[in-house]
């Protein structure tokens, strides 16, 4: 059982169960902080008879390229809920400032080999398993990439102008050039066809890249935009971006929760 101490609880380490599909051992880690500022207790919110974290865990388990799924939490109640429905959980520090740091703590305590780690957001109960497989394949198929992530083309001006929706631009080979809360690229002349891409907050990491990144100090652009992925770019990590037609719904408010419940009910 976890303790109430602010220290890492090392999860059990059974062998991977899917035979190392694709040649690189993969694990999905779901950071689940209990004390969300906008929606306290978020991981345990009920969605049609199950806590939200269980919906995320079940969808991550359906990803064909994921061999193990672990919930990383700072709360004993979340830990107990996960183990009660048959999931694997790890207790982590309460002092982490980001989900990435929480994921890195779990990985640093692993007693077995893993090469690709997917950070699956704990507040996206409708995450598509195909999206998880897609970010894994980005690293499997391109040895130049240290990190993989997804984006979705948007023509919705409200999304384009919303600072809470991060936009991304990338080069002709799909490597990220910049992420911003502002609309990028800037359409100086105000005419012509401009494509805008909404960044989706799912990441795959090579193990060494994740551990190196989590040990680095916040960078100037990161602190300006409040976007952790800019720390990676400022330190020379290459982030491969792939487009998807699938969107996600992050639960940050009661209205978001009600929207998710309606969508799940309607299939």
Describe the structure.
The protein has 9 helices and 11 strands. It is an alpha/beta fold. It has a 7-stranded mixed beta sheet with strand order 5-4-1-6-10-7-11, sandwiched between helices. A two-stranded antiparallel ribbon has the order 2-3. α3 (99-108) packs across α6. It starts with 25 loop residues before the first strand and ends with a helix.
Short description:
With 267 residues, this protein is of the alpha/beta class. It has helices at residues 52-61, 76-84, 99-108, 129-141, 157-161, 207-214, 220-225, 229-234, 254-265, and strands at 26-32, 46-47, 50-51, 69-73, 88-91, 116-119, 147-154, 167-170, 176-180, 196-206, 239-243.
User: How many helices?
Assistant: 9
What's the average pLDDT? 89
How do the helices and strands follow one another from N- to C-terminus? EEEHEHEHEHEHEEEHHHEH
Structural class by sheet pairing and helices = alpha/beta
Q: Tell me the fraction of residues in β-strands, as a range.
A: 15-25%
Number of strands: 11
In angstroms, what separates the terminal alpha carbons?
Answer: 37 Å
Radius of gyration: 18 Å
Low-pLDDT ranges: 1-22
* Principal-axes shape call: globular
Q: Can you give the helix content as a percent range?
A: 25-40%
């Amino acid at each position: 059982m976890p303790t109430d101490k602010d220290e890492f609880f090392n999860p059990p380490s059974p062998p991977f169960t899917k035979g190392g599909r694709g040649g690189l051992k993969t694990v999905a880690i779901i950071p689940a902080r209990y004390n969300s500022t906008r929606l306290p207790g978020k991981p345990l919110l009920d969605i049609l008879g199950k806590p939200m974290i269980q919906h995320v865990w079940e969808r991550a388990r359906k990803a064909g390229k994921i061999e193990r799924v672990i919930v990383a939490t700072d709360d004993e109640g979340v830990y107990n809920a996960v183990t009660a429905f048959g999931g694997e959980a790890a207790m982590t520090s309460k002092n982490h400032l980001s989900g990435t740091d929480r994921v890195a703590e779990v990985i640093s305590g692993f007693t077995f080999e893993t090469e690709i780690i997917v950070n699956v957001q704990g507040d996206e109960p409708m995450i598509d398993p195909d999206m998880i497989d897609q970010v894994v394949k980005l690293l499997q198929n391109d040895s130049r990439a240290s990190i993989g992530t997804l984006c979705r083309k948007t023509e919705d001006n409200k999304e384009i102008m919303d600072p809470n929706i991060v936009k991304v631009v990338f080069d002709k080979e799909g490597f990220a050039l910049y992420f911003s809360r502002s609309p990028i690229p800037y359409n100086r002349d105000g005419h012509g066809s401009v494509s805008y891409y909404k960044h989706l907050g799912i990441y795959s990491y090579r193990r060494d890249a994740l551990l190196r990144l989590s040990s680095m100090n916040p960078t100037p652009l990161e602190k300006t935009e409040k976007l952790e992925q800019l720390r990676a770019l400022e330190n020379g990590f290459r982030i491969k971006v792939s487009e998807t037609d699938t969107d996600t719904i992050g639960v940050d408010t009661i209205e978001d929760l009600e929207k998710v419940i309606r969508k799940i009910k309607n299939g």
